[in-house]
């Protein structure tokens, strides 16, 4: 493990950029960026376009380690080059930004109010690849829609099972049991989820450390116990469909939480913008998210 990266993630000021849209979410990300589906006809062309978008973000002078601690990458992004370097290497050695890899294969259908992760038969290969590319940690996402303790428990159990496998490769896992912000039971879900997470964290030994990526709760400092748990390196918040303004307003109410935003980070960015317009839009977003993260 890179100790400099570990300490940066543990105590550094800033937030995590989520640049890990996968096949299912890429068309929407491109549409918001000003590229509709008529501009590509194959999956390969689609991923070429989204890599161009991500490269433009990563290489922007405003995308730097002064405000950004880490960045989460899609596997295909990790394997591609930015200015002649593998993306993870470019992030760390050119920008000082810690690279993470999204490792899940998407979600299964809802069972007991929760969408568990699909099987990851290629997990060992993916983790070996992450190590070879110099990645610091991983991220895996599941989704909770109802306050069903059985479904929430299954979600947390699966997350920690995967986390144990990630830790065996000397990587730091980001555990992401997202709570659907549209759920009428959001507060009850978060109550059960917090208890489940604390129980799972208490079962870890002193050699096991994780990060958490959680939906912003409505109650201020609701996850304080998680941010102070000795096995938790950092707790990040996802925007989950909130607008950038609303996500920042909520985030500012939570001491110890930092952002890990995707759509809220890229809000307002367009392919048609010239470099000055693009950088200015990105700079405003980065500054506002940074301010909410470090308050």
Please characterize this protein's 3D structure.
The protein has 295 residues and is an alpha/beta fold. It has helices at 3-11, 26-32, 43-59, 75-79, 87-95, 123-132, 149-167, 186-202, 224-227, 244-251, 263-266, 275-294, and strands at residues 15-19, 68-73, 81-82, 85-86, 98-102, 114-115, 137-144, 172-179, 210-215, 232-238, 257-261. It has a single domain, classed as TIM Barrel. The strands form two sheets. It has an eight-stranded parallel barrel, surrounded by six helices. Strand 9, helix 9 (224-227) and strand 10 form a beta-alpha-beta unit. Helix 2 packs across helix 3 (43-59), helix 7 (149-167) packs across helix 8 (186-202) and helix 10 runs parallel beside helix 12 (275-294). The mean pLDDT is 95.
Quick overview:
The protein has 295 residues and is α/β, with parallel strands linked by helices. Helix content is 44%, strand content 19%. The protein is globular.
